[in-house]
Model the fold of this input.
Amino acid sequence: MRYLTFALTKGRLAQKTLDLLEKTGITCEEMRDKDTRKLIFVNEEQKLRFFLAKGPDVPTYVEYGAADIGVVGKDTILEEGRKLYEVMDLGFGVCRMCVCGPESARESLRNNQLIRVATKYPNIAKDYFFNQKHRSVEIIKLNGSIELAPIVGLSEVIVDIVETGSTLRENGLTVLEEVCPLSARMVVNQVSMKMENERIRRLIGELKKVI
Ligand code: PRP
Done:
């Protein structure tokens, strides 16, 4: 039997994924060790391999078949636009992609002023404003702490993830529009889905029982 390889998103999502897999009897103790510098972990008995990657790289590994299965946020799936099958909503990492800004930006958003939108997700922002709202905006790509942009005057609004809303509140910003709901998803390589159909179907079935 060949190894089924999982690409997991480093950080919070990986921990939650391991918790979920454990409930179905899939374990990978080595991976729980926070101090390890190892990159890949093997469960010999179950013929499974796991590795951790940065979120945006997970769909890349899965599209090319370097991983059969990936666990990654819907935000990253949308932003990366890779060819893969999204097979399951795992029900954790629940949050929303939103257009946010100071209350005063609501007006400029409504009338057709050319506004600047700062975001870590330029493709999602473009799709939302251009294709869904039929509105032209200037997109400015940032890599983190997006909430800073409207505060220091880089942009009028941002497109970013809102979970509890506390980052917005603490910075005097608010949700102006909702783009889409988000959560962690399981994705599968298109060839693996055919070649390993039975194993993957069984895994999905087991996961559905414990979610
Ligand atoms: C995310 C997101 C928001 C924050 C939302 O940032 O970009 O800043 O979490 O969470 P809240 O609604 O619960 O406050 P993250 O901490 O992942 O880091 P980043 O700023 O580097 O993107």
